[in-house]
Amino acid sequence: MTEYQPTLEEIVAFVVSFLEIERSARYFSVATLTLVAYEYFITFEQEADYIYHWRGGWTAPSILFVFNRYFIIVLLIISNLMLLWPDPPDTFCLHAARFTGASGIIITTVVNISLTIRLYAFWHRSRSILIGVSILLVAGLIVSTVTSIISLVPVKPTPKFAPGLPTGCFLIPPMGTWIPLIPVLVFDTVMMVLTAVQARRLLQGTGASLQRQTPIVAHLFKTGTGYYVVIFGVTLFTSISSFASPHLEAVVPSSGILAAITSIMCSRLLLYIRSELQTAKTPRLSTATVGTPYDTTAERTGANFEMDNWQQDFRELEERGARRRSDDAIT
């Protein structure tokens, strides 16, 4: 029985298709880095005002923001280096591929921790919500890590057709790159549902419209909805493209687009919330309604930006018409 030998036409067709994938991956990766760089430059002034010069000082959300903001840049630089370096050694390509795979999980985890802190404060520091969401977060992290390791271990560099061809690190793509994205979809869906449920409860409890609620309640619901729609759309696109198209399976995950969009949206959430707190001038309301006595003086707000004394019952503050402590905890 003779071994099958591809014809010259089949070899040429394979090489041409391969080079098209390589070019698409390079364009996609450069575009992703450009998007993150553009986002960085247009929001740096807000970052300086609401992070480095924030009246509450450095808090856990601030630290997570900075890590999320700059780690994605490191990740995308390495991703682009993998594609733009003309003839990198195979050892670099393998280590870089594993680093970028792990980095995507790290960024997603940091973002999810930030969202968990905000949801915990939004739910009046409910321990059951914190425990439940934390269990879901850890379970999703385990599933994503295990499936990523299984898919990345067999990855190998593509044999060279000729010296320097193809250029850059072009690896034989792993199978099932869409599987680690399932926990991301599940976690984001649960976060959106819990945000919507709590917003509905607050509206029903006060009989007020969304516009008459505290700015943080209204803003968390609106930005949370926007975050979910964008992240769900990008994650769904990444999952379907990786599952249905061998061409896109080699292009989309390697570009880091999902990690980049997730990082951008999480950063925007914190900047928007702090911008809302900075500009809000809500007057004091009576205890019959749920109001937010915003006071921007450093004496009254500086100590309240840390998530200290989590055991204190938030409802006591709510009954006195003081939502500011919860709003500060979110930031």
Q: What is the end-to-end distance?
A: 70 Å
Number of strands: 0
Q: What is the CATH topology?
A: Rhopdopsin 7-helix transmembrane proteins
* Number of individual domains: 1
Order of helices and strands: HHHHHHHHHHH
Which term fits the overall shape? elongated
Structural class: mainly alpha
Q: Please give the radius of gyration in angstroms.
A: 24 Å
Helix-residue proportion: over 70%
The number of helices is 11
> What summary fits the major beta sheet?
none
Low-pLDDT stretches are 281-326
Strand content: under 5%
The CATH architecture name reads: Up-down Bundle
- What's the CATH C level? Mainly Alpha
> Averaged pLDDT, please?
74
What does this molecule look like?
- The structure is a single chain.
- This protein starts with 7 loop residues before the first helix and ends with a helix.
- It has eleven helices and no strands.
- Residues 281-326 have low confidence and may be disordered.
- The chain has helices spanning 8-52, 60-84, 90-122, 127-152, 182-206, 215-244, 246-255, 257-279, 298-301, 314-319, 324-330.
- It is mainly α.
- The chain has one domain: Rhopdopsin 7-helix transmembrane proteins.
- Residues 27-74 form the DUF6533 domain.
- The chain crosses the membrane at residues 63-85, 97-117, 129-155, 175-197, 226-244, 250-271.
- Keywords: Membrane, Transmembrane, Transmembrane helix.
- It comes from Exidia glandulosa HHB12029.
